[in-house]
Write a structure and sequence with these properties.
The protein has 328 residues and is of the alpha/beta class. The chain has a domain of 221 residues: Rossmann fold (3-Layer(aba) Sandwich). It contains twelve helices and 13 strands. The strands form four sheets. It has a seven-stranded parallel beta sheet, sandwiched between helices. A two-stranded parallel sheet has the order 7-10. It is globular, with a radius of gyration of 19 Å. The chain binds uridine-5'-diphosphate. The site of uridine-5'-diphosphate (UDP) has 13 residues, from helix 7 and strand 8. Uridine-5'-diphosphate binds next to helix 7 and strand 8.
Amino acid sequence: MTKSTLPFERVLITGGAGFIGSHLVDALLAQGCKVEVIDDLSTGSVHNLDSAIANPNFKLTVASVLDSQPLAIATDRADVIFHMAAAVGVRLIVENPVRTIETNIGGTENVLAEARKKNKPVLVASTSEVYGKRSEVPFREDDDLILGASRRPRWAYACSKLMDEFLALAHHRQNGLPATIVRLFNTVGPRQTGRYGMVIPRFVSQALANQPISVYGDGSQTRTFCHVADAVRGLVGLVASGSAAGQVFNLGGEREVSIRDLAQLIIARTGSSSQLEFIPFEKAYDEDFEDMQRRVPDLTKINRAIGYQPLKKLEDVIDDVVGYTRGV
Ligand code: UDP
């Protein structure tokens, strides 16, 4: 008899000490699951697991997904796997391109190989980065992808995550592995760090300190932000549905906002005296850097599959990050 309120009980989460992974841990523990995390704590933090660690249904294994042995043991113990471990953040990707490619490709190769041995359902977290420079929004899962030159390291991130998608789909096609791919769009919330580039925690910290807000480029580029609570609901819903295998889903928010308007909104909501400071991309990153102009998900597919729609507004996202940043 399972105590879980979901159709599975034992869950393995790679990258579970990370921002999204740790919220997934909390949500699954709250639903009565037994949760094991594999994380090498390279970008994740054990503090993200502060409440989980007190729970007897939780286990943390500090290891890399590049190491097959702990992965094999943990996979044996699990009913389903959420593969969230990946190189994260534009800054890290630009500064450490080798690690980005090796972690994303080698790690996913191992996770899928272990899942395949035991035929365990696996959700592979991918990214909206794979849509690349497409300018027609919203992005649909079957759209063509437009990537830039290999000279620019940012595209290695998109390509490495795309290889993850190809490999997961190949395992599904060839071996019948129940693998599902989710493309996450700019997920934001408490515990996200601005250290690796993420714009909302960075702007919030700058606004609270009344320092200049570092808008890259002219700030006309847009993003569609998603509260981590909505993202977690979507991830769990897809795996629980049992009918998402072999498919790719977008998962994100609804409101497209320019980075300039985002900066103004954060200033307004924090009552900050900060001013906008426009920084050219080549100064923010390097001369090989390329940004995307627009990014908006089409959520029709995930809505049809599990009735997903985001519940949190952009203002909720900002207020939650402000509350968290004030408390840190
Ligand atoms: N950005 C910015 N200032 C910052 C950090 C990011 O203007 O301090 C911009 C960045 O150029 C991009 C957007 O905010 O256009 C979102 O950046 P982030 O790194 O959060 O995510 P991305 O969508 O680029 O992966």
